[in-house]
Amino acid sequence: MKVSDILRVKDGGTGGTLFTISPEHTLAEAMRLMHERDMGSLVVMSHGKVVGMLTFREVIAAVVDNDGVVGDTTVWKAMDDGPLICTPETELDEVRRMMLARHARYMPVIDKQVLMGVISFYDVAKTVVDSQNFENQMLKAYIRDWPAGEPEGEKAESL
């Protein structure tokens, strides 16, 4: 399974609305947008290119570093300027490995320098669970439709 499969089914096939912010915006503006849209992350874009990622983790770190005051801190100062990225062709197992290794909850999906979407750890976990549920349903259907001439126990032993 690939990242493109996640994007295809995410939010009814639209991949969801992408919200981005420029590094020059203030952290307060970013926090307001994240709160209003109930989002855990924003992709930071400059001149049409992904330059960073801002998640609640970076927001909390910036607030703590500034003794609880956001002030005029910019997104540029708070963002992760080396976020994990993937392409639509990246295999799901590789995405899981990368996200677990870096404790990343969000990952921009980029194809030929164009932002295609953002996948979350939730999206990945949901896809894995849905895939396993589908496989379980197929196996149960196969067992129910066992050929009439063979008892189930004999068939199972021959495997």
What does this structure look like?
There is one protein chain. With 159 residues, the protein is of the alpha+beta class. It has a single domain (3-127), classed as CBS-domain, CATH 3.10.580. 46% of the residues lie in helices and 18% in strands. The chain has seven helices and five strands. It has helices at residues 3-9, 27-36, 56-65, 75-78, 92-102, 121-144, 152-158; strands at residues 20-21, 41-46, 49-55, 106-111, 114-120. Strand 1, helix 2 and strand 2 form a beta-alpha-beta unit. The protein is elongated, with a radius of gyration of 21 Å.
- The proportion of strand residues reads 15-25%
The largest sheet is: 3 strands, mixed
Indicate the structural class.
alpha+beta
Q: What is the typical, i.e. mean, pLDDT? A: 87
Overall 3D form: elongated
What is the helix content?
A: 40-55%
Radius of gyration: 21 Å
CATH topology: CBS-domain
Summed up:
With 159 residues, the protein is an alpha+beta fold. It is 46% helix and 18% strand. The protein has a three-stranded mixed sheet. Strands 4-5 form a two-stranded antiparallel sheet.
Give me some keywords for this one.
single chain; 159 residues; alpha+beta; CBS-domain; two-stranded antiparallel ribbon; 5 strands
List the helices and strands and how they pair.
Elements: H1 3-9, E1 20-21, H2 27-36, E2 41-46, E3 49-55, H3 56-65, H4 75-78, H5 92-102, E4 106-111, E5 114-120, H6 121-144, H7 152-158
Parallel strand pairs: 1-2
Antiparallel strand pairs: 2-3, 4-5
